[in-house]
């Protein structure tokens, strides 16, 4: 089917992979035994929020500028 290629580039997949690693590490930090410690009480939720609310949406929304848009200086519509 013409025009059915995925719009994701290497940059998108890299951001998604980093987001996934941040999310997994956040859940890993939640498992640390002292429940009232800094890692499980503060760092883990911050990592999860950054992963879910910043990196994964950024991986979906970030687009590379077309060569023609970069040459003319026009923003993408």
Q: What this model shows, in words?
A:
The protein is 66% helix and 0% strand. With 77 residues, it is mostly helical. It has a domain at 10-62. Helix 1 runs antiparallel to helix 2 (38-61). The longest helix is centred in the middle third of the chain and has 24 residues, at 38-61. The two termini are 25 Å apart. The mean pLDDT is 85.
- Rg, please? 18 Å
**Topology, number of strands:** 0
H/E series = HHH
Q: Give the end-to-end Cα distance, rounded to a whole number of Å.
A: 25 Å
The largest sheet, given as strand count, sense and whether it forms a barrel, is: none
Helix content: 55-70%
The general outline is elongated
Chain-wise SSE layout:
Elements lengths: L9 H21 L7 H24 L5 H6 L5
Helix pairs in contact: 1-2
Summarize the structure.
The protein has three helices and no strands. It is mostly helical and 77 residues long.
Question: Which features would summarize this protein structure in a list?
Answer:
mainly alpha, 77 residues
């Amino acid at each position: 089917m013409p025009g059915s290629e995925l719009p994701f580039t290497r940059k998108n997949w890299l951001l998604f992979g980093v987001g996934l690693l941040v999310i997994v590490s956040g859940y890993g930090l939640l498992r640390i035994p002292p429940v009232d410690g800094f890692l499980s009480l503060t760092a883990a939720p911050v990592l999860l929020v950054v992963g879910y609310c910043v990196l994964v949406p950024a991986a979906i929304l970030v687009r590379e500028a077309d060569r023609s848009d970069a040459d003319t200086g026009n923003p993408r519509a």
